[in-house]
């Protein structure tokens, strides 16, 4: 059976991606809460748990000889205008959204190469365009895009595929947090369902190995 590791799979997009991949993969469920990770792993047909804080100074990836898929879904939302964003805010967002993705991928590369695996980064529309008030988040996602693009070219000779998935706003805790901060009403109909992002990841993963989805952008049909 193929193996997939999904970061941030205790909630939101990561959880739905993990459930979807669990249909035909052994899934390494990841999160910060041991209780939550174990409960989700126990609910899947074949899964193991990996607990790690990706914002920590260091962490150790699970020991795997072979890894078919890694989906980097863990992420944090940024702060406000540059004027009100501290150095700590910048560091907190980049630690999780960029540095942890680079470091985890580095540690997993031998296992990914062994399987000729696929790396999927859950980026964002904010990794393609940036507006006012979103500098830390957008800058981290632009950086993630650059990391993903470089890695793709580096790993081509090793048969490892690297894909960047850019969803617009998705109906998860992250959007509730954002709407609360921005003010206004939460209308779930204006957002993508997490399952649509899981479907996009599935498309990326299931494409015959000779083809790579380099970048995939999806937006809510009825967005504002
Ligand atoms: N929601 C959107 O509109 C949207 C749109 C485009 C892209 N994205 C991206 O999609 C990804 C998932 O977002 P989401 O909406 O599912 O967010 P979410 O509901 O807020 O969930 C975030 C996930 O990231 C994990 N996480 C956060 N900080 C972590 C840390 N320091 N160490 C380990 N795990 C950590 C969380 O774990 P805990 O449960 O332990 O907190 C949780 O599983 C993110 O990269 C986000 O930028 C989201």
TrEMBL record:
Superkingdom to which the source organism belongs: Bacteria
Organism: Frigoribacterium faeni
Stated name of the protein: NADP-dependent 3-hydroxy acid dehydrogenase YdfG
Residue span(s) of domain Ketoreductase: 2-200
Keyword Oxidoreductase set for record: yes
Pfam families: adh_short
Leader peptide range in chain numbering: none
An example Gene Ontology CC term for this record: membrane
Keyword set includes Oxidoreductase: yes
Record keywords, A-Z: Oxidoreductase
Gene3D superfamilies: NAD(P)-binding Rossmann-like Domain (3.40.50.720)
Similarity-based family: Belongs to the short-chain dehydrogenases/reductases (SDR) family.
Molecular function per GO: oxidoreductase activity
